[in-house]
Structures are given as C-alpha cells and as structure tokens.
TrEMBL record:
This is DUF4235 domain-containing protein. The chain crosses the membrane at residues 50-71. It comes from Nocardioides panaciterrulae. It comes from the Bacteria. Keywords: Membrane, Transmembrane, Transmembrane helix. InterPro entries: DUF4235.
Amino acid sequence: MASGSKVWSVFSLGAALGAAAVTRKALEKSWQVATGKKPPENPADPDVEVWEAAMWAAVTGAFVALARMAAQRRAAHYYARSTGHLPAELQKDGQ
C-alpha cells in the first residue's frame, strides 16, 4: 500500500501545482486586461497602492486555492477509477 500512497502523493502534487500555475498565468493576463498594467510583483513596494496589493492577494489566493482543490478532486476521481479505490489518505475510517 505504501507504493500506492507514493503514487497518489506525486499525482496529487502534480495536479495541484499544474492547476496553480495555469490559474496564476490566466489571472495575470486577466489583471492586465482589466487594469491595463501588470499585477504587483512585490506588495511591499511603496509604489504599489495598498488596494492593488490587497486585491491581487485576495484574487490570486482564492482562485489558486479553488483551482488546486478542483485539480486534486479530479485526480482523486481518476485514481479511484484506475485502482478501484480512493487513496488511503482520502478513505473514511470505515472503508
């Protein structure tokens, strides 16, 4: 079962990182279209307005977290279809 756990860990991590990268890239493009400028690279920079830094942090945090969650759920579904069971980390105690 340790082998299955390692496979799931790698699979889940890959899905989450891929989703986060794609989402962040899409958000950067959307930010540029909406505001006409690049998203703030360093929120601590005095040239970045507080509202802009806070908005960028809130938007990226929410959307990246949602994308990672969705990717991990899809990965769990694929894993369960492929192996016939959920990964041990996702199984309820009674299973």
